[in-house]
TrEMBL record:
Source organism: Quercus suber
Name of encoding gene: APXT
Protein location: Plastid, Chloroplast
GO cellular component terms attached to this protein's record: chloroplast
Lineage: Eukaryota, Viridiplantae, Streptophyta, Embryophyta, Tracheophyta
Protein name: L-ascorbate peroxidase
Gene Ontology molecular function terms on file: heme binding; L-ascorbate peroxidase activity; metal ion binding
InterPro entries tied to this protein: Ccp1-like (IPR044831), Haem_peroxidase (IPR002016), Haem_peroxidase_sf (IPR010255), Peroxidase_I (IPR002207), Peroxidases_heam-ligand_BS (IPR019793)
A Pfam family matched in the record: peroxidase
Keyword Oxidoreductase: yes
Length: 439
């Protein structure tokens, strides 16, 4: 997994000499809980990010593989950069809902990409940043922000919090071109959830069918994503996440995704250039990780932040506050001790985040499963397998069921027929009767 994701992740700016996708670890940025650097660092990082973005953009535009990087020209507006700024030709209608079969196939291609590129963190970050602009106080779509695919437009990619995410688009664009029946909004969230699951994290209860915005004018204004080093970290996190409709438990659970990835100071303004945990990669070496095993999704983030004993592990102000703030600490302590509880709450929070602000077609969304679902077995009723009017005890019910299942039966199907055995039994009974009557 490469560096780090987030909705609270740090910003990383790409370099013109960014390595090929096979070393995608170098592309990832921060993790799932801090998206922006501190106010002072943000300004400097933003300036560096814009310069670096321009170089990367020229490089990307010259590549035949990513000539349609930001938009699928058949279905979306074409963005052009001029001295006046951005111009676009937008189609009048929103993109159609995604095709379920293409969603399944795209998921398999994303898994292959993850296996070869170690880009889990940056894909999680991409999905988070597209959804994390949501404002619950705005009813209109797409003005309310959220998961609508707007992050593919250059104007939003240039936001300081999104530095480096152009590399995530470069990785996903071949998949988008292959599966034109999948919207960008769905692709970003599909990649994010798949990355968590493939890193050893929980299964995310996702739904799809998100509609894409069609023009850069529909992108949210800059400044809706959280900062990693604000003067009052707890207040800042609550201001940002409460605006999205998330609570303290969800803030802490989402912070736990910082168990993945690393931060690079030359891109984000945070972290060390290299540590003993990152000097050998995978991918381009360097950066500072939050955890020792920064390619595995588990609850080690909470354990390492709580102990704060290893100088080679990164602790941001917004990381430290989850154990300093009394309300946050309740959940952070719980997750440090109970990984199963963390996985459960994280999966729910991630799914909620991925739906923020989205417009679904159909309205109820699309659920893709790994295979056909099996109907739940019929509830065992002892009366079906016994006679008489008296009610059997629970112990006797269980005994009857165990004996019934031991010979191949169950409440859901009749006992199998064995004609040979039946014939033997009949012959035996006849032999006994003949012997009795003969005597």
């Amino acid at each position: 997994m490469a560096e780090r994701l987030s909705l609270l992740s740090l910003t990383l700016s790409p370099s013109p000499s960014t390595p090929a996708p096979t070393t995608m670890a170098a592309f990832s940025t921060t993790a799932s809980s801090r998206i922006l650097p501190s106010a002072t660092a943000a300004a400097a990082a933003a300036s560096r990010a814009r310069l670096s973005f321009s170089s990367s953009l020229k490089c990307l535009q010259s590549s035949p593989l990513v000539s349609h990087l930001f938009l699928n020209q058949k279905r979306s507006p074409m963005v052009r950069v001029s001295e006046r700024g951005l111009s676009s030709t937008a189609s009048p209608k929103c993109a159609a809902a995604s095709d379920p079969d293409q969603l399944k196939s795209a998921r398999e291609d994303i898994k292959k990409l993850l296996d070869t590129s170690f880009c889990h963190p940056i894909l999680v970050r991409l999905g988070w940043h597209d959804a994390g602009t949501y404002n619950k106080n705005i009813q209109e779509w797409p003005q309310r922000g959220g998961a609508n695919g707007s992050l593919r437009f250059e104007i939003e990619l240039k936001h300081a919090a999104n530095a480096g995410l152009v590399n995530a688009l470069k990785l996903l664009q071949p998949i988008k071109e292959k599966y034109s029946g999948v919207t960008y909004a769905d692709l970003f969230q599909l990649a994010s959830a798949t990355a968590v699951e493939e890193a050893g994290g929980p299964k995310i209860p996702m739904k799809y069918g998100r509609v894409d915005v069609t023009a850069p004018e529909q992108c949210p204004e800059e400044g809706r994503l959280p900062d990693a080093g604000p003067p009052s970290p707890a207040d800042h996190l609550r201001n940002v996440f409460y605006r999205m409709g998330l609570n303290d438990k969800e803030i802490v659970a989402l912070s736990g995704a910082h168990t993945l990835g690393r931060s690079r100071p030359e891109r984000s303004g945070w972290g060390k250039p290299e540590t003993k945990y990152t000097k050998d990669g995978p991918g381009a070496p360097g950066g500072q990780s939050w955890t020792v095993k920064w390619l595995k999704f588990d609850n080690s983030y909470f354990k390492d932040i709580k102990e704060r004993r290893d100088e080679d592990l990164l602790v941001l102000p917004t990381d430290a506050v989850i154990f300093d703030d009394p309300s946050f600490k309740v959940f952070a302590e719980k997750y440090a001790e109970d990984q199963e509880a963390f996985f459960k709450d994280y999966a729910e929070a991630h799914a909620k985040l991925s739906n923020l602000g989205a417009k679904f077609e159909p309205p109820e969304g699309i659920v893709i499963n790994d295979g056909p679902s099996e109907p739940a077995p019929e509830k065992f009723v002892a009366a079906k397998y016994s006679s008489g009017k008296s009610e059997l005890s629970e112990t006797m019910k269980q005994k009857i069921r165990a004996e019934y299942e031991a010979v191949g039966g169950s409440p859901d199907k009749p006992l199998p027929t064995n004609y040979f055995l039946n014939i033997i039994i009949v012959i035996g009974v006849l032999a006994i009767l003949s012997s009795l009557f003969g005597n």
